[in-house]
Specification:
about 160 residues; two-stranded antiparallel sheet; mainly alpha; three-stranded antiparallel sheet
């Protein structure tokens, strides 16, 4: 149906397509944001574990600002140090932790395609699939790391 040469049905179709596309793009950004936010939460707990277990109390702030926050002290190194210390031995989370940060790096550094896929050098992965893999790992890993950080904090408090 057209009024004075304007095809309203076509306009509605174009508008609907635009709204749908925006919502998908919004969903992609939300997924990426959640993965990045959760990754930062994990990294912050890793920082606490490192400080509580390896740094003298008075040196904690200095070490955090000048070492742990330095870009060369990456998450992979933090994971290695904590894993080699034996703190994670009774938990089976090291591979999950590493995979979470692989996903985080894909989200942060690889190209998001129009079809809601992340294109890496090797493969194309659906963003939603990556999130569905990441999310349960996050819950388990965060719970374990938080528990370790709280135990470490109590040990420090008892030594004072």
């Amino acid at each position: 149906m057209s009024r004075k040469g304007i095809d309203f049905e076509k306009m509605l179709e174009i508008e609907w397509e635009s709204i749908t596309k925006k919502n998908k793009t919004h969903e992609d950004h939300m997924i990426k944001s959640l993965i990045m936010y959760d990754s930062l939460a994990i990294e912050n707990v890793l920082n606490l574990i490192l400080i509580y277990n390896f740094i003298k109390e008075k040196q904690g702030d200095f070490f955090l600002k000048n070492a742990l926050y330095d870009e060369s002290f990456n998450v992979g190194l933090k994971i290695k140090i904590i894993a080699r210390s034996g703190l994670l031995n009774k938990y089976k989370i090291i591979n999950k932790l590493k995979r979470m940060f692989e996903i985080r790096n894909m989200i942060a550094h690889d190209t998001l395609q129009k079809n809601h896929e992340v294109r890496t050098r090797k493969e194309k992965l659906k963003l939603r699939d990556l999130y569905e893999e990441f999310s349960p790992k996050f819950r388990e890993v965060f719970e374990v790391l938080y528990k370790i950080s709280k135990k470490s904090e109590k040990i420090i408090e008892s030594v004072k």
